[in-house]
Design a protein that fits this description.
With 355 residues, the chain is of the alpha+beta class. The chain folds into four domains: 29-41 and 280-350, Beta Barrel (conserved putative lor/sdh protein from methanococcus maripaludis s2 fold); 45-53 and 199-275, Elongation Factor Tu (Ef-tu), domain 3; 55-87 and 165-195, RNA polymerase II/Efflux pump adaptor protein, barrel-sandwich hybrid domain (OB fold (Dihydrolipoamide Acetyltransferase, E2P)); 89-162, Helix hairpin bin (Helix Hairpins, Orthogonal Bundle), CATH 1.10.287. 26% of the residues lie in helices and 37% in strands. The protein has helices at 2-20, 89-124, 130-162, 208-211, and strands at 29-35, 37-42, 45-52, 55-59, 64-69, 76-77, 82-86, 165-167, 172-177, 184-185, 190-195, 200-207, 219-224, 231-239, 249-255, 268-272, 277-283, 289-291, 294-300, 307-311, 313-316, 322-326, 333-337, 348-350. The strands form five sheets. Strands 1, 18, 19, 20, 23 and 24 form a six-stranded mixed β-sheet that branches. A six-stranded antiparallel β-barrel has the order 3-12-15-14-13-16. Strand 21 and strand 22 (322-326) form a beta hairpin. Helix 2 (89-124) packs antiparallel against helix 3. It starts with a helix and ends in a 5-residue tail after the last strand. 19% of the residues are buried.
Length: 355
């Protein structure tokens, strides 16, 4: 009995100690808050660049070693300009072999026609049997087919020889070089990129709330940043359907029409949208917190002083704040200072609030 008592004594002491411990509550933290409001933000201008509407990536139709390239980035090229060449020794040998095969086929055909004519003459004089004539006719047809096949082979060899050079299909400007002489290039590998300088777009990335106000054909003012007095009116040609995952902006392409030469490719422009106001939910940048790949804010319920994590979808505004796409409503209260030191369900005291 005494032994049992000695065994139970440490256990009772441990339980008594546990009962004496109290769970430490989360500290009540002071925070600053704001109410989510809807703002009318003026849309003024955005920065964009001039890009070509049409670009072509030129590559050889066959595998080979490039021996020359006659253009550089920025060069103006005309229709029919040879951009680059491959080593064509093997292709020339193929053409010579095809010519020799055709000459042999033509000689065989000539002999077959002579034999056919002779057999028919002999048959008329009853010097040979009809079977001899039939054999000569079949031989003549076979050699004719061989000649046609040789002609096709020669045409194919000549066509492949043209694949050894890249020829520009329209007047344009070289915008990129992707291979150098001496390099072995694969079939269809891009060697030179050519753009049509006559068809130009002003390309700009806009916040989704702004892009939503535009339609295909909407007139837009475009001004050169180097010379703001040079202004022209373009029209929205394309609105990318999906927003960029990182910036949450949509790319807009605005056709420049008959733009003067000063709006050259690569120029920086100011895109001035029509006079309008966009209504959007706006929250301060300091209220937004990134956690485990999610964007959250701390919201405070009206009947409680405890914070709750609220996942939202936002995009950056030009003024540095955030526009709320989803997750919040007008009038909700969120924390704007102290967001990094809070836990879900933690009670807070609001700085500046009357008690």
């Amino acid at each position: 009995m005494k032994s049992l008592f000695l065994l139970l004594l440490p256990l009772s002491i441990l339980l008594a100690g546990c009962e004496g411990e109290e769970k430490t509550p989360l500290q009540v933290r002071p925070v600053k808050t704001t109410d989510v409001t809807r703002e009318q933000s003026s849309v003024v201008s955005f920065v964009g660049t001039v890009e070509p509407q049409v670009t072509t990536n030129y590559g050889f139709e066959i595998f080979g070693r490039m021996i020359s390239r006659s253009v550089q980035v920025g060069d103006l090229v005309k229709t029919g300009t040879v951009l680059a060449r491959l080593d064509s020794v093997t292709l020339l040998e193929d053409v010579r072999a095809a010519k020799a095969s055709l000459a042999s086929a033509e000689a065989s055909l000539s002999k077959a026609r002579t034999d056919e004519a002779r057999q028919k003459s002999l048959y008329t004089s009853q010097a040979v049997a009809k079977v001899k004539v039939d054999d000569a006719v079949r031989a003549n047809a076979a050699t004719l087919a061989a000649k046609l096949e040789a002609e096709a082979s020669l045409a194919k060899a000549k066509e492949r020889l043209t694949y050894a050079q890249l020829v520009c299909a329209y007047d344009g400007i070289i915008t990129a070089i992707s291979a150098e002489p001496g390099q072995v290039v694969a079939q269809s590998q891009t060697v030179v990129t050519v753009a049509n300088p006559d068809l130009r777009d002003a390309v700009v990335d806009l916040p989704q709330t702004v892009a939503a106000t535009l339609n295909i054909g909407t007139p837009v003012e475009i001004a050169l940043q180097l010379d703001p007095k040079q202004i022209l009116t373009g029209r929205v040609r394309r609105i990318e359907p999906a927003a960029d995952a990182a910036t949450r902006t949509q790319r807009i392409r605005i056709a420049l029409g008959d733009a003067p030469p000063s709006f050259r490719l690569g120029s920086v422009v100011s895109v001035r949208l029509p006079d309008q106001h966009v209504s959007e939910l706006s929250i301060p940048a300091m209220a937004v917190l990134e956690r485990q790949g999610k964007t959250i804010v701390w919201s405070i319920a009206e009947d409680s002083k405890a914070v709750r994590a609220r996942q939202i979808d936002v995009q950056r505004r030009p003024d540095g704040n955030w526009s709320v796409i989803s997750g919040l409503k007008v009038g909700e209260r969120i924390v704007t200072a102290g967001v990094h030191n809070l836990s879900d369900g933690q009670r807070v005291t609001i700085l500046g609030e009357q008690k």
